[in-house]
Amino acid sequence: MKSAILIPVAAILGAAVLSSLFIVDEREKALVLQFGQVKQVKEDPGLGFKIPLIQEVVRYDGRILGLPTTPVEVTMLDDRRLVVDAFARWRITNLVQFREAVGAGGEVQALRRLESIINPAIQQVLGSVNSNRVLSEDRTSLMNQIRDIARAQASNLGIEVIDVRLTRTDLPEQNLDATFARMRAEREREAADEVARGGEAAQRVRASADRTVVELTSDARRQADVIRGEADAERNAIYAEAFGKDPEFFAFTRSLTSYERALQPGNSSIVMQPDSEFFDYLRSDGGRGNPPGGAAAVQE
């Protein structure tokens, strides 16, 4: 009889002892609740105790958690609209305050509350600057401002916001076509300006080259005329010197040149008087005797 009674009692006591024990993982934090009231906070990993059937253990993630926010449209200071979403990292720092703020919803409810804090902070910070700052290296300071605002407001939830990063800053779909068209028009205008400036520069180079050609040609002609004049002067000087040494021979050679030019082969005819001066050297004995070769040379 005693053994029959002790076995169930031992089983009940063993079940009661086991139900009074709980283990907190190193990645968790736990609260011991009694009728909804917090009776114990267990943040360190290890073994914990509670009153069976009266108290319950609620566990929360003690690690750093992430929150990808939903996209939100922001009107910038320069009236440009951007679609922005962010990624926040946060963790629970005060279990009691966190339980009172989110109730039985736990981390799911905390994500909703935290997103309702971060999205207005994004609109507040980005709405006070131009879009160029969001698209430049200065966006880091903007993200830090968003983080500070979210951290101050989330502290009432027992949450610490560690970091907030903007993951996307795009134009709304309805504005993309207009924006691309405006960008295309700007690029075409810049291209036309470059072409016009190139044409103007080419015209200046071409005009300079034409002016250089004219100057070089004029200078070359001037030099040619000078050289030609010097050569004519030298030639005339040689003729004059030769004429001065032997006027008769000079007259003879000039007459031979005239005969050569006038008496070309062909059907041409010359009509003149027999006593014309043109034939002086053909008639005169002095002309036949003085030049080298005599009359035979003249007749040839």
Task: Give a verbal description of the structure.
This protein has helices at 2-20, 95-102, 106-126, 131-134, 139-154, 173-245, 247-262, 280-283, 285-289, 294-299, and strands spanning 21-24, 28-34, 37-42, 46-49, 55-61, 65-68, 72-75, 81-92, 159-170. By secondary structure, the protein is an alpha+beta fold. It has 4 domains: 2-61, no CATH class; 65-170, Band 7 domain (Tetrahydropterin Synthase, Chain A, 2-Layer Sandwich), CATH 3.30.479; 186-245; 247-299, no CATH class. The strands form 3 sheets. Strands 6, 7, 8 and 9 form a 4-stranded antiparallel beta sheet that branches. It has a 3-stranded antiparallel beta sheet with strand order 3-2-5, with no helix packed on it. A hairpin with a 2-residue loop joins strand 2 and strand 3 (37-42). Helix 2 crosses helix 3 (106-126), helix 3 crosses helix 5 (139-154) and helix 6 packs across helix 7 (247-262). The longest helix has 73 residues, at 173-245. The chain is rod-shaped and about 185 Å long.
| Elements, N to C (H/E) | HEEEEEEEEHHHHEHHHHH
Largest sheet, in brief, is:
4 strands, antiparallel
Give the N-to-C terminal Cα separation: 178 Å
- The computed structural class is alpha+beta
CATH architecture heading of the largest domain? 2-Layer Sandwich
**Share in β-strands:** 15-25%
CATH class type of the largest domain: Alpha Beta
Q: Can you count the beta strands?
A: 9
Could you list the spans in which at least 5 consecutive residues all have pLDDT below 50? Answer: 286-300
What's the number of domains? Answer: 4
- Assembly state of the chains shown: single chain
DSSP summary: helix tally: 10
Outline: rod-shaped
Q: Provide the CATH topology of the largest domain.
A: Tetrahydropterin Synthase, Chain A
User: Residue share in helices?
Assistant: 55-70%
Would you tell me the overall average pLDDT? 80
Using only CA atoms, what is the Rg? Answer: 58 Å
CATH superfamily of the largest domain, by name, is: Band 7 domain
